[in-house]
Design goal:
single chain; alpha+beta; Jelly Rolls; Arc Repressor Mutant, subunit A; four-stranded antiparallel β-sheet; 12 helices; 10 strands; disordered C terminus
Length: 321
């Protein structure tokens, strides 16, 4: 573990997250958090991101797999994914200190164009991975957070450090996953496009054959590659998007279960209730009542939620889960 780089990152987070909770920063795409206790799993949708814990530990769940990361490891999410996340190590005197940084696929593509000798992206792989964090990457993230000390430097310097961080991820142990989504014609890039379409149009009927044709794949090949990247079938992916948005609508906008079900594309309220219970463990009414009575678990959701802007028809960036 890079002790000096880690200590600088801890100090920078503590300076800019002096109180408990999660906050956006003046640097686009950068979110920092100070979480004083373990949390229950919180379901949400996360966009392509680099997540680092400087102190404590967190776990992410996707399709039955558990991804744990701590100060020695970084979590990379390369495509929009519906996940659950929780803090597993934190105390009031030694809180979990974490950073989440959105990664811009267009910047990844630019960097690939500047590195023609970059390795082949290989076959599609799961869009989330934990690997040891390298000292140079930890140093760059620490320098980015430290730029908040001097607001007048953000405009000229933040984009440069963001680009450096993206490059270091690209050439590091997790780089193959980024190359997959940015390499023209690669199967994973086609799947990433389909994922973005589903996130923007999740309330519409699932056009499986049309998406497969757009990806220039057979229907069976499309399903195979989609599951390789997300751990879910397209239909399972769509259901999770719908149910998480319905939860947000009930919690944040006061809709009842029937109204939320209709808004997210369900025609059958009973089917909605069954699938909601299967994902969240409770009926819609009981789940929302519990969340309103005990809102602490939602504090961590900002650390993962999208930062590229709100889709007009997709799950909102402000979803609390």
């Amino acid at each position: 573990m890079a002790t000096d780089e880690l200590a600088r990152l801890v100090a920078a987070i503590e300076r800019h997250a002096p109180s408990d909770g999660v906050c956006r920063t003046a640097i686009p795409g950068l979110i920092i958090a100070r979480l004083p206790e373990p949390t229950v799993p919180n379901a949400l949708v996360v966009d392509p991101s680099l997540c680092i814990v400087a102190q404590g530990a967190k776990e992410v769940f996707l399709a039955g797999e558990v991804y744990r990361y701590d100060p020695a490891h970084a979590l990379l999410v390369s495509v929009d994914l519906p996940i659950s996340a929780r803090v597993v190590e934190a105390t009031p005197t030694r809180p979990c200190l974490a950073v989440r940084l959105s990664l811009d696929p267009s910047v990844v593509g630019e960097l690939l164009a500047e590195c023609p000798d970059a390795r082949s992206p290989g076959p599609p792989a799961r869009g989330v991975e934990v690997s040891p964090v390298e000292p140079q990457l930890l140093d760059a993230v620490g320098r980015l957070v430290s730029l908040l000390d001097s607001p007048h430097t953000l405009g000229p310097l933040a984009p440069l450090v963001l680009r450096e961080i993206t490059f270091r991820v690209l050439i590091g142990p997790q780089g193959a996953r980024l190359r997959q989504i940015a390499t023209t014609g690669a199967p994973a890039q086609q799947i990433a496009r389909a994922i973005r379409w589903l996130r923007d149009h999740f309330a519409d009927p699932l056009p499986g054959e049309a998406l497969a044709r757009q990806a220039q794949m057979s229907l069976s090949g499309f399903h195979q590659h989609f599951k390789a990247v997300t751990g879910l079938s397209p239909l399972q992916y769509q259901k999770q998007l719908r149910l998480q948005e319905a939860r947000r609508l009930m919690l944040g906008e006061g809709l009842d279960a029937a109204g939320a079900a209709l808004r997210v594309g369900y025609e059958s309220p009973s089917q909605f209730s069954r699938e909601y219970r299967r994902l969240f463990g409770e009926s819609p009414r009981r789940d929302v009542a519990a969340l309103k009575a005990k809102p602490q678990p939602s504090k961590q959701s900002e650390l993962f939620r999208g930062t590229r802007g709100t889709h007009q028809s997709g799950p909102r960036a402000g979803a609390t889960g």
